[in-house]
Records
---
Amino acid sequence: MSKIEIKNLSFSYIENEPILENINLVIDERSTAIVGQNGAGKTTFVKLLKGLLKPDEGDILLNDVSIKSMTVAKLAKRIGLVFQNPNDQIFKNKVIDEVMFGPLNIGMTKEDAIRNSKKALEMVGLSSKIDNNPYDLGLSERKLITIASVLAMNTDVVIFDEPTIAQDFSGKELIKSIIRQLKDEGKIVLTIIHDMDFVAETFERTVVFAKGNVLLDCDTRDVFSKGEILKKAYLEEPNVTKLCRALGYDETFLTVNEFVEFRKNNHL
């Protein structure tokens, strides 16, 4: 099982204006959401994990090995990142070529790259679009192409940046099932996201960033039980959690189904 240790991590783009200050975390087998308002340091944190930025202080260990000793190319074999905006990631004229680019770029054989890419496209429901130009497809499908591109690389760590962008209910359910499948395969799954409902429904652990620091790091239910602390990070609770609070319930409900089952079991 892979593990990422973040030790005393600090980073700034401008001297004396820290973006992240003394971050200490262990990212383990639990699916983990990183949340916080814009400017909290989430994207910078992910870029540091991916090796796209170098920390001013501290270290990041992947399975006890400092990523400082790894090139970006070597890290690409271990850590996959799905960009927030698919238009920043897609550049090929065929869906299959786009999805195969990552696997080929990390040294996978053509045969393995084709097999993995077709499997990934099946996972995201785009097998029938294999020969399409990605830019002939809508934004939601382009987002799924970028997800397939990372899945095909078969990395130990998969990071999603705002995975639910442009997705309807069925798209979100599909991505949710992919995240759970990756976790079941023993991969580290991490996301930065603003969709609190999706966090509540999908992730076991939630880390709240605020002003470059970790404000909360708990099981997701525990995080959303701390409404007053969330307000300090300018975050809202999931919709069902807010509704049940307004109705006077003390319990923290994360999904509609949870609340329905509670009502059934208590004959209310």
---
Amino acid sequence: MSAIGSNHSTRSTTDGVYERGEPWFDDGNVILQAESTRFRVYRGALALNSPVFAGSFPRNRGPQVPSSTAVYRLQVQAIDLQHFLKAIFVPGYYQRKLKTDYDATISIIRLSTKYQVEYFRQDIVANLVIAYPSTLAAWDKRSKVEAYPSTVAQRAVDVLRLAREINVRALIPAALYQCCENPLEVILDGIHQPDGGTTRLSPEDEEICILGRERIVEAFRARLFSESQLVSSGPGFLASRHVPCDSARLRWLYKDEVWEMAFGYDWFKPLHTECPILGPGVCPSCQNAFAATFHRTRSFIWENLPGYFGLPEWSILRIELDHILKEK
């Protein structure tokens, strides 16, 4: 295999001007062109990795060598094709980019999906699921687990768009939920990205996000802050019918931060892990009963998360994800 040629030298042929991109192998036997950039690589290696390419190349009918290198024009972006081909042909490139370069990794999975390169697709999806999981336990641990590609846990809008493009619906509920954690004006004006810029949701996802946000908050408050949950006759306190605690619970409700959580316009932290303390005057039994209701509410919100956004239930999404990760 020859050395990779220099990058972005301009060449002219009878069919127009093009840039020489990397990888470019002088002894390569196929040229792929994306936009105005060409890449010279090896047909056999492409066919071995991708059934789409394998089905596109003509089969040799004998030992003869073609007199010229065939050019295949692809309807993809040049930068995506560059990262995809380097992942296939440059040793260590994929592993390095997976850890350090979000955009390159997304280019690789985008074309791996298009051209059915299973290893890259499955590996990247498995890493995306760490940051956008399908279980509450994994969501609670996500801040403590290193997720690849880097910065992916802060790029919910991009992951949401990508999940729809590559048809991995199991990523969508957690990505939408993370978008919902922003104030409403941020959701409408653009969500901040790690590079300092902002990214807008599509009009469809913006509507889904805002409606889902309201459904989640309503469900949280109905299960935790309804009258039946704040007095000792409620189902959350059957094990601790301590009537003297009722007035203390109601005083606690009137605290500013609690009132915001129970009735505020822009509050949205239904999956926060720390149970509120009811305040002085509430016995341990009533506090424990409230904590149990709080944790049941968190689990309820998560298990119903896809439905708040108009998606199938988790069991269906998890089956789809398992199929993607086990494709042969």
---
Amino acid sequence: MEHNDPEALPAPGHAEVRVVAATPDAARAVAEVLRHCFAGGEQRSYPAPDGGVRLHLTVDTTRTAGPARSWLSTSRPPSGTGPHSEEP
């Protein structure tokens, strides 16, 4: 994946997560929770407007920890049902 292209999709099984917070501590707290749930990759931080911080990280959704695995399996509707069944 080319990280310089903001429109590029992450690799299959991965998700790009962006956290915007007023303080670096708040952004790090959210990132820490995600790391407990998903295997993580690189993390990058940038200044945000009005003095905040933007934190970008990549998570591997194919290697989840216990709490995330339980939540993911119970939150997925059966295939072909739900409000978006017309989507591919």
---
Amino acid sequence: MGFTVPDDTVLVADGGLATELEARGADLSDPLWSARLLIEAPHEIEAVHRAFFAAGAQFATTASYQASFEGFSARGVDAGTAEALLQRSVHLARAATGGAGQRWVAASIGPYGAARVDSSEYVGRYGLSVAQLAAWHQRRLEVLASAGADLLALETVPDLDEAEALVGLVRAADVPAWLCYTIDGTATRAGQSLEEAFAVASGVPQIVAVGVNCCAPSDVLPAIEIARAVTGKPVIVYPNSGEHWTCGGWNGPARFSPTLVPAWIAAGARIVGGCCRVGPADIAGVAAAVHEQT
């Protein structure tokens, strides 16, 4: 089946790809978000992957989070070219590894709400059935799974219905993946308990890790404990900076800190990184904290 989380090792995930692209001057004010640069400036994506690896990350998460066949079509990109662009996201991440060992490519499978470009990935409950969600995700997932990634990153999932759809596809494709919910406290963004949400992955060997991402750092510790208790699987956490997205911008103080990492590891986290507003310098701090603990 491919990638598994190594025993007795804590791995370092990357940070916010879009955050670093914007810090380098990229304009992501587009429905495709960072996937826009798969068309216009793929070298910039590869450069950011390399920056995170240089900072100590061991995963490159591809620029496919907000990419979809519908989104590309709205830009006049035909289905064949869209497929090639999805594959390019994986190839750029692979090139950035430089062939070094202990570096992996995680192909990002963002939620349906991300492609709607209306922030509904932070709400869930789209009005679609599990079967309809699976049908929407299937082609993109299959393309990314066959493009040479080490595993799929099912990330920022707000709703257990969408998790059921994605887990079913991963099981059918027999490819390794991690499953990460975006949460508010100890519930999914759609309001389901994390006990119920993580149970979707129980007994599914293709799901090699479960956890949370794009959430407040303060929500991480309780989620680790629930994920371990429900699934017994390795836990992955990569919260955002703690700032809040409102009115088209980030507000409030940043609360992400490498000083939080030892407690996450002690609670059972096996892969640790960051999401929105977490850059290479932050990941360097995470990597240092991981190395001090292991």
